Amino acid sequence: MAARSFLYGGDSGGGGGGGSGFNSVLVTNKRPPFSSSMPLDSHFVSGSTHSFAGARSMVSFDQDGGNGSGRNFFQTFDQEENGDDEYDDYFQHPEKKRRLKADQVQFLEKSFETENKLEPDRKIQLAKELGLQPRQIAIWFQNRRARWKTKRLEKDYDVLQESYNELKANYENLLQEKEKLKSEVHDLSDKLLLQEMEKGTSDSSSTKSPCEPLQQEQAADFLNDEDVGVRSDATESSSPQYVDLIERGDSSYLFEQDQSDESLDEEDKLEKMFVTTVSGYMLPKIESGDYPELDAVNSSYLEFPSHGEDEDEDQPFGFWSY
DNA sequence: TTGTGTTTTATTGCCTCC
DNA sequence: GGAGGCAATAAAACACAA
Fold it and tell me: In Gene Ontology terms, what is a biological process of this protein (predicted)?
């Protein structure tokens, strides 16, 4: 057995100990039995003379091996209260664990509430009050601290779980809201596009050549052309995105490149691919009434960025983004 | 009554502090 | 190196359903 291997070898506070075993049993408690009718608070009064008769609660061993022989065992066992049967039981099974009485536990609980650490003086005092071994008091506090810690961990876990659930719910709400807004924006841009097309076909039909379907490849090439850089701040404009993106004529807004001689080719390119509306906006050339084509354009160039691309300011179709 | 799960009491070994 | 705390664990006591 280790240094602390004993069953209540006096108050060693965990360090003492030494020989133990039933041969060294010696009961030390000679205090009057604790009466459950006593107000518990009285036991907290300093210098209180009340005490528990704890000897019945636990087997006690003396450190020195005791010279007590035979009937010295459980000398103060409360025979009056427990009767001969229990006495015999103790005598025949002296190592049996005994639970503390409810009153004793209540007393210890109160003490624990005031301070969950146990100073040596307090331990002795409590032991006297309860008629238990100081070692028992120490063990009780130790186990009580462990239970308290477990409870606290459970509470902490619950709090964290609740917080997590709340955050998760908020996140899901935001996702839903985002999807809703996305579809709203899509609908509105479709409407705007149709509006502009109607204007364009009715007002310019007499003076302009028939609209040609926008070739996706052409458009993609054009829009990807580094020489025709799209202004990245177009998306930050407060005007409708489509309008911002394709402002007519004033290519200085849409494009960074100067209107130099070389840019004449680009102007031709623009003319081929876009139609200028009466309201001055440039729209991709689409055959009037050919809405499936429009859908194709929409799906090709009006796609929403997927997750993670939202912050990509350099994407080639940035001005199509919302 | 009995099997089983939970709680309580106690031990052991390791660690830190003084 | 001793005192005391803590985690892990054993084991008795207890609760309770079948």
Answer: positive regulation of DNA-templated transcription
Torsion sign (Cα): A177, A178, A182, A185? positive
Angle at CA A282, nearest 5°, toward A211 and A313? 125
| A8 CA, B11 C1': Å apart | 11
Q: What is the pLDDT along chain A (322 residues), one digit of tens a residue?
A: 334 544 554 443 333 322 232 323 333 332 333 333 333 333 333 333 344 433 333 343 333 333 322 222 333 333 333 334 444 444 444 456 789 999 999 999 999 999 999 999 999 999 999 999 999 999 999 999 999 999 999 889 989 999 999 999 999 999 999 999 999 999 999 999 999 998 887 765 544 444 344 444 444 444 444 333 333 333 333 333 443 443 333 333 333 333 444 444 554 554 555 544 433 444 444 444 434 333 333 333 333 333 333 322 222 222 222 2
A118 CB closer than 7 A to any strand C atom: yes
The SS3 call for residue A162 is helix
Residue A117 CA and nucleotide B10 C1' are separated, in Å, by 19
Q: For strand B, give the nucleotides within 7 A of a protein CB.
A: 8-14
Question: With left for phi above 0 and alpha for psi between -120 and 50, is residue A312 left, alpha or beta?
Answer: beta
pTM exceeding the 0.85 threshold for the entire prediction: no
